[in-house]
Each structure stands twice: as structure tokens, then as C-alpha cells.
């Protein structure tokens, strides 16, 4: 069954290109979808050009929401959150949401 989980982190400094590639690689390995959200902008972390553009314009000391959807959302969210803890402080890890229908819904 698919799950959706999110985590809010406050990013302390600008992302390096190496860190952007690490985020992209982890997102590509996840069996599901990973989104980053901040200031009414959302990006799919598996699309490298959009991810780089999004993170280059990201301001330090801002909140970044990591949203993971998939069969092992909690484990995958922990991987991403742990990876970002060097550059960010975790504000909140959200609740798990279960999807039982193959349809879509709006958050």
C-alpha cells in the first residue's frame, strides 16, 4: 500500500552541487516519488534540471518540506532527512497517510 509522509527542515546554508546530486540519486532509487516544497514552489527531486534550479534559488534559513510517496515512505523519508541533517535542522516529521485507491487526490 502506498504511503505519503513529509518532513519539514530548516536549511542552514546553500546547497552544494554535490549535495544536489546526492538528493537526486537518493530520490531516483526510491520506489515512489519525492517532492521538495518551499514558498509555494514544488519540484520532483528525480528531475535533475528542475531540482538544481529549485535548490540554487533556495534561500538559507528557509523551511523546506520533503514529501515522499511510495510503498516505504517512512524509511525513504528518514534517509533523505538524515542526509540533510548536516545542512539543515529538522523541524517536524509529518504523519503517515495511506492511499487505498489508485486514484489521485489533492493536498
TrEMBL record:
Organism: Mesobacillus zeae
Name of the protein described by the UniProt record: HPr family phosphocarrier protein
Amino acid at each position: 500500500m502506498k504511503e505519503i509522509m513529509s518532513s519539514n527542515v530548516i536549511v542552514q546554508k546553500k546547497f552544494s552541487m554535490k549535495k544536489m546530486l546526492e538528493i537526486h540519486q537518493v530520490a531516483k532509487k526510491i520506489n515512489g516519488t519525492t517532492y521538495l516544497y518551499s514558498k509555494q514552489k514544488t519540484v520532483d527531486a528525480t528531475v535533475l534540471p528542475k531540482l538544481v534550479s529549485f535548490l540554487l534559488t533556495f534561500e538559507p534559513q528557509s523551511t523546506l518540506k520533503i514529501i515522499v510517496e511510495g510503498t516505504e515512505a517512512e524509511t525513504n523519508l528518514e534517509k533523505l532527512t538524515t542526509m540533510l541533517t548536516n545542512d539543515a535542522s529538522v523541524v517536524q516529521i509529518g504523519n503517515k497517510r495511506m492511499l487505498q485507491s489508485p486514484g489521485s487526490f489533492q493536498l
